[in-house]
Target: glutaryl-CoA dehydrogenase (ETF)
Amino acid sequence: MTTDLLDLESLLTDEERAVRARVRALVDREVRPHIADWFERGHFPRELAPVLGEAGLLGMHLTGHGCAGRSAVEYGIAMQELEAGDSGIRTFVSVQGSLAMTAIAKHGSEEQRQQWLPRMAAGEAIGCFGLTEPGAGSDPGAMTTFARRDGDDWVLDGAKRWIGLASIADVAVIWAQTEEGVRGFLVETSAQGRPTPGFTATPIEPKLSMRASIQCDIVLDGVRVPESARLPEARGLRAPFECLNEARYGIAWGALGAGRDALEVALAYAGEREVFGRPLAGMQLTQARLAEMVLALQQAQLLALHLGRRKDAGLLRPHEISMGKLASCRTAIEIAREARALLGGNGVSLEHSPMRHAANLESVRTYEGTDEVHTLVIGQALTGIAAFRG
Model:
């Protein structure tokens, strides 16, 4: 049974459908057979990185230096298929490509791009993106991490929290205040096989969400880097926000993959489960639930596709990304919860995906901007008044 009642398939090009088929096959082969075990054990499969790299999914929206140079719509489609497997796997691709690699590609020097992007695109090197702090989540302008000049070097002190991949990263993109405003730095996490002095990344455990992913606390205690480690084109908060918008755009597509998978599981279950001598799918209340789920899903999918077309045309604005991220996360989490309820007691088992998706989406809904932050971005676009501090 299909969940594409609007025939959105007809709006995709042959090339876009080919990307979808290729990534869906990868997820079916590499993720679905293992994800329940990874989630239960709280394990991120590091060995998946080169597989995703070989498939051209790491930094796939970037061009040059080993990156695939795919369109925004193709990137979005890939994120939807990855998150249908699990939000943690899509998060890895987002942190690596939309955050760390984008920071280097957009704001780095040519030497930095040559040093890192080819290996990161291949999954041979891992990156992380250190912006959020323990006391400055939704307000990165309040960051206290500071970088001071010391001769030809910079010395970084501070802390970051909820930093994806940090404990396995080879390079950390660290954002810090300086006497001249916010700047970005590339901190190699080890040198000549030894940990970089003063840099510590500790996984945050235990977690109830995103268990097949890694999020860390970072401590920077007198970390010394040369001037060549500074991202020369990164000045002010606009630089990290440009990277965040790339990730948020991917989430607008990705979250819907989790929602779609939850709906597909519920639809299949309802067709097989018998209640009072007839299929659960034949009950009016069940059909009402399923109808509401598919209606919400396809509305959000249309929005994501519209945003993708605008991004490819160079027309997408930040508040539109906020609309997509907010709508998709709201939609996906409600579908996952409703699908879990339709499965009854069986829905709490890891044999079925909806409750895992619902738990993951609690994190997806929070990171890269909470509902409240995106609501205020939309409100500012409507009124012309920034109410963040009001």
About this structure: The longest strand covers residues 153-164. The domain at 238-383 is CATH 1.20.140.10 (Butyryl-CoA Dehydrogenase, subunit A; domain 3). Residues 238-272 form the longest helix (35 residues). The chain has three domains: 8-121, 127-229, 238-383.
